[in-house]
Amino acid sequence: MGSAYDTKLIINGHLPQDSGQSRLNELGYKQELKRDLSVLSNFAFSFSIISVLTGVTTLYNTGLNYGGPVSLVYGWLIASAFTMLVALSMAEICSSYPTSGGLYYWSAKLAGPNWAPFASWITGWFNIVGQWAVTTSVDFSLAQLIQVIILLSTGGKNGGGYEGSKYVTIAIHGGILVLHGIINSLPISWLSFLGQLAAFWNVLGVFVLMIIIPCVAPERASAKFVFTHFNSDNGEGINSKPYIFLVGLLMSQYTLTGYDASAHMTEETRDADINGPKGIISAVGISVLAGWGYILGITFAVTDIPYLLNENNEAGGYAIAEIFYLAFKRRYGHGIGGIICLGIIAVAIFFCGMGSVTANSRMAYAFSRDGAMPLSSLWHKVNKQEVPVNAVWLSVLISFCMALPSLGSIVAFEAMVSIAVIGLYIAYALPIFFRVTLARKRFIAGPFNLGRYGFVVGWIAVIWVATISILFSLPVSYPITIETLNYTPVAVGCLLIIVLSYWVLSGRRWFKGPITNIQI
């Protein structure tokens, strides 16, 4: 923007237009959502969706089973380093294209006119289904944690405590989703406040738990155990230590997802071409530090891995719940303090699910605005408060339906959840891949950019995503049976077949990629 233009604005008595809105208009979109979020609010949405309390707590069993402390402590650092490279590449692209569509819009622009419709179609569907899978897994894991809290509060598994059926779990899951739908129908100013509260709660919760639990626990693990013990006794028939370690990475990589929320909130963020990238990078960076602290704090309270993973312990095999409960029970004779600590995590997971629905709805709003979804005109309507309320309730409904396979088989449900990691990361990698290949020469960087390192960082990010996609598709138990088969490649493969079939049979005839809605 030249100086003459600035002077003209001041002479006419107008405030200079927000840089994010100016860029949005240049990209061909009208400002329809309320642009009211600060960089702190933008960061808060991504940070509360990453939510280390949610991811680490939910999959701590996996980390303990596959490698134990070594897998937890060092696996986190390895996954964090590569995740930060993915985040940096995404932030660079976000700075150039700050729209709610995020990833699929980036793919369209970076793949070039010939490939734009197909590139944005694949990226968009993997992104939105991956997001729905994240919301499903987050709210379902909260329902499971609530069940464990009820079990421990009523006497524990060995003391006649109440164990709810799978139908009770799905009912709790549905109730949580309805609450998230109601909250996400509120104006963005309310969501902004709740998002910042969620970020504060996550940081505070991590610090409180990582200090209290090892301090309260009468028996603590040695530093040697925490930093060098490798658990290869997993009963899964896998003897190779490197293989076990790689499978154990799932906990870390599952936790470090969802930071595309900052991109989806850019049309509601002030100066989004600068603050969107800041939101992505700071959310990942602070989560990495907080997550490692949380893992260390909890692992210092681990003394008997087989007992923690045993389904006949008081918490029914839920490792972190058993750690908290035992720490207080052995010190004070009752486990009430441990149950309160689990309540802190439950609130964090609730906020995480709330933020997930927010990001889902913005993605559905943008994708339907470009005509990619069935009944698109319905999903991109905004209400008087400038909230895409139909998209909110669509996300709630789909996230409920995606949990229904848990009634038939928990294995089928876990395959669905795997889409949350693989599907989402494929959507993260596609625009980065187009940035370093088809758009290498013509990519125009925004205010935030990696300069000459963008190309190298981009390629490392793409290779990492390809690596984890293969890793998390490998068998996790031998011998392989119907019950032990890793259904991840089946779930992701089915998603790919459905998306490609929809494209070939119908989409290619009418979907032209992102549609501008402003006449420049």
Which helices and strands occur, and which strands form pairs?
Layout: H1 3-11, H2 19-26, H3 39-50, H4 52-65, H5 69-96, H6 103-111, H7 116-153, H8 166-183, H9 188-216, H10 223-228, H11 241-248, H12 250-255, H13 261-264, H14 272-299, H15 305-309, H16 319-332, H17 336-369, H18 376-379, H19 389-401, H20 405-408, H21 410-436, H22 454-471, H23 488-510
Helix pairs in contact: 3-9, 3-14, 3-17, 5-11, 5-14, 5-21, 5-22, 6-7, 6-21, 7-8, 7-17, 7-19, 7-21, 7-23, 8-17, 8-19, 9-14, 9-17, 16-17, 17-19, 21-22, 21-23
Polypeptide structure, described:
Helices cover 69% and strands 0% of the residues. Helix 9 packs parallel to helix 14 (272-299) and helix 9 packs antiparallel against helix 17. By secondary structure, it is mainly alpha-helical. It has a single domain, classed as Amino acid/polyamine transporter I, CATH 1.20.1740.10. GO terms for molecular function: gamma-aminobutyric acid transmembrane transporter activity; L-alanine transmembrane transporter activity; L-glutamate transmembrane transporter activity; L-lysine transmembrane transporter activity. Belongs to the amino acid-polyamine-organocation (APC) superfamily. Amino acid/choline transporter (ACT) (TC 2.A.3.4) family. Pfam families: AA_permease_2.
